[in-house]
Amino acid sequence: MKLYGIRNCDTVKKARKWLDDAGIDYEFHDFKKDGLDAGQLGHWEQSAGWEVLLNRRGTTWRKLPDEVRDNITAQSAHRLMLDNPSIIKRPVVEHGDTVSVGFNADEWAERFKH
To answer: How far apart are the first and last CA of the chain?
Structure first.
């Protein structure tokens, strides 16, 4: 399992604590510090959808000009997420062949039970 996010994000901290407490091994990738390549992002977009990945509730989104927000497309969202990884909803988890976005303790308990 690989967990992608930003180290100081509260949701990522909760997700990592949950995994640690559950004794589930994972690799953490800080995409703000360690980067994110277009191929990886493309895989997530195909698996989860760009609309799910794009965090429209965060500060980064709210700081964008209205023209950018009002005319967002799959292609412009892809470029935006590569240029500003903090606009990606977190965490992104690759587990087996699946990609999930966000953290919900109840869903994770069901998904990752041993």
So the answer is: 14
Query: If you average pLDDT over residues 25-43, what whole number do you get?
Result: 94
80 part of the active site: no
Question: What strand order describes the sheet that includes 2-5?
Answer: 27-30, 2-5, 92-95, 98-101
61-112 residue pLDDT tens: 999 999 999 999 999 999 999 999 999 999 999 998 899 999 999 999 998 8
- 107, burial (CB in 10 Å: exposed 0-12, middle 13-18, buried 19+): exposed
Question: Phi and psi dihedrals of 36, rounded to 5?
Answer: -150, 130
Q: What domains sit in the chain, N to C, each tagged with a CATH number?
A: 2-111 (3.40.30.10)
Cis omega (within 30 of 0) for bond into 85: no
Catalytic residue among 3, 6, 9, 36: 9
